[in-house]
Amino acid sequence: MNNSSKTVLITGAGRRFGLALAHAMLDEGYQVIAHYNTSKDGVAELESRGAASVQANLADLAQVHQLIDSVQQHVSQLDLLVNNASCFFENARIDASDDNLTAVLNVHTAAPYLLINRLHKQLAAANGNVINITDIYVDSPSTDYVAYCAAKAGLASLTLSFAKKLAPAVRVNAIQPGPILFLPEHDSAHRQKVLAETPLNIEGGLEPMIATVRFLRDNPFITGESIKVDGGRALTI
Fold first, then answer.
1. Structure pTM?
2. Most C-beta atoms within 10 A of its C-beta, which of 138, 194, 195, 214?
3. Which of 113, 137, 145, 148 is catalytic?
4. pLDDT tens profile 120-131
5. Architecture of domain 7-235 in CATH?
6. Which family, according to the similarity comment (predicted)?
7. CB atoms within 10 A of CB 136
8. Active-site residue flag, 148
């Protein structure tokens, strides 16, 4: 597939799913705008392939506005916006600092709101798509990550609201990942416990997420939808 005239903005593109998705979009011929905060190594890989990069701390809303201004200056239309950036903070980290609470709320809810709201003209010009990466904990929140779950639930609500507000020019959907890719700090006992609670009993990997982005992007009759990509784990939590 050649999409050389199409542009995608991916937040949190410097690592993990965001990085893999950016590479996949480059493979398809997209012009990729790769947002990152601190993960420069991954973004350097993307730049070597022709991606544009923009740095911003999404916890700081002034920097979010600067990010949006930069995108608006360089593109007249935006085919795809993927709100992927995340900060996965447990209760103890939130309770230790109000700045961490602000970060969780801004990165997952306020920044996506601003990005969608201020870039809607560029999205509409392309009959574009927004895909928000939420979490299976939106529907069954974890007591260990109270603020994180609340912020992701806010993003899920934004998905529904903007799907109604921006139709028919822009479609807005969400993906709820489960155990796609364990973090380095997850020990063997944690991994075994999570997989035991997952009906398909495997770590999903990143390709199922990328495939779901493509499905939502390419199906013209879906908006306001949220798809779980979790091996069935939402059934057990």
1. 0.96
2. 138
3. 148
4. 999 999 999 999
5. 3-Layer(aba) Sandwich (3.40)
6. Belongs to the short-chain dehydrogenases/reductases (SDR) family.
7. 23
8. yes
